[in-house]
Amino acid sequence: MDLTSLADNAFAISLVFARIGSMLMLFPGFGETSVPARLRLALALLLAFIIVGLVGDKLPPIPEQPMQMAGLVGSEVLIGLMFGAIARLMMSALSVAGQVIGMQAGLAMAQTFDPSQGRQSAIFSSFLSLTGVVLIFTTGLHHMFITGLVGSYDLISPGALPLAADVKDLATNTVADSFRLGVQMAAPLIAFGLIFYLALGVLSRLMPQLQIFFIAMPLNVLVGVAIFAISMSAMLGVWLMYIDQYAASLNGVAS
Q1: pLDDT tens profile 201-237
Q2: Residues of the domain holding 218
Q3: CB contact at 8 A, 27 and 87
Q4: Which three-class secondary structure string do you get for 117-151?
Q5: Alpha-carbon distances, residue 2 vs 5, 61, 69, 153 (angstroms)
Q6: For position 105, what pLDDT does the model report?
Q7: Any idea what the Cα angle at residue 238 is, between residues 25 and 110, rounded to 5°?
Q8: HEC profile for the chain?
Q9: In the prediction, which pLDDT does 119 show?
């Protein structure tokens, strides 16, 4: 793009920064609360300087009216928040899986702070969330998110807000898919819990004078943690495929 004045350059960079900064604020890995806000802003500004040369031909000219300029910047912020929020909702699949696993393994009351959710969660939820963030960087998936910043301009042009009905359907489907995926990830523990508690119920009827549930609780925790350790790699592999599909869609790659 041939920018002929300092005002045009400043407007183009600000417009790109509005979308890029909003997306990075919520993207998994980049938007975690443990990452300092100054570092996130500096990264977004650096990427804006780089990306503006790649998407400059898609940017509209600088508006003549201040309100039009504010509306254009505001629309870019909303678009960035939409893309980032969808990626953040996909992280909730790990939280759902961790909560279900905690209940089935008898450790639902073991709470710790989950940085990806910003609240207290079951210890399995926090562990899966932190492991998921680590896997995003170790597998190179964060590179796809960075290139997806550029690909988002092919999906939605600057200033062209998507229809509210489409955004609603996208958010609803993402929440439903994340919940379904979380339950599927916890399926081994759900199966174990059904069999284990059914067996305990039968034993309690056969020996009502014995506190079966109190005696069997340590065994429940031990076997539950063992099953989780065995199936954790498969759980996270399925979740990575789920995140990879979204990152590929940002880049215009068919999944």
Answers
A1: 777 777 777 677 677 777 878 888 898 889 888 889 8
A2: 6-250
A3: yes
A4: CCEEEEHHHHHHHHHHHHHHHHCCHHHHHHHHHHH
A5: 9, 12, 20, 19
A6: 79
A7: 70
A8: CCCCCHHHHHHHHHHHHHHHHHHHHHCCCCCCCCCCHHHHHHHHHHHHHHHCCCCHHHCCCCCCCHHHHHHHHHHHHHHHHHHHHHHHHHHHHHHHHHHHHHHHHCCCCCEEEECCCCEEEEHHHHHHHHHHHHHHHHCCHHHHHHHHHHHHHHHCCCCCCCCHHHHHHHHHHHHHHHHHHHHHHCHHHHHHHHHHHHHHHHHHHHCCCCCHHHHHHHHHHHHHHHHHHHHHHHHHHHHHHHHHHHHHHHCCCCC
A9: 64
pLDDT in tens, 53-91: 888 778 877 777 778 888 888 888 888 888 888 888 888
Each residue's pLDDT tens digit, 116-129 = 666 667 788 888 88
Using 50, 70 and 90 to split pLDDT, how confident is the model at 171?
Answer: confident
How many folded domains does the chain comprise?
1
**Band of residue 133 on the pLDDT scale cut at 50, 70, 90:** confident
In a domain, 100, yes or no: yes
Query: Does some domain include residue 1?
Result: no
Is 185 among the domain residues? yes
Within 8 A by CB and 6+ apart from 59, the residues are 1, 12, 15, 16, 52, 158
Distance CA(59)–CA(95), nearest Å, equals: 38
| Domain assignment of residue 106, yes or no | yes
- pTM comes to 0.79
Best CA proximity match to 25, nearest among 77, 75, 72, 73: 77
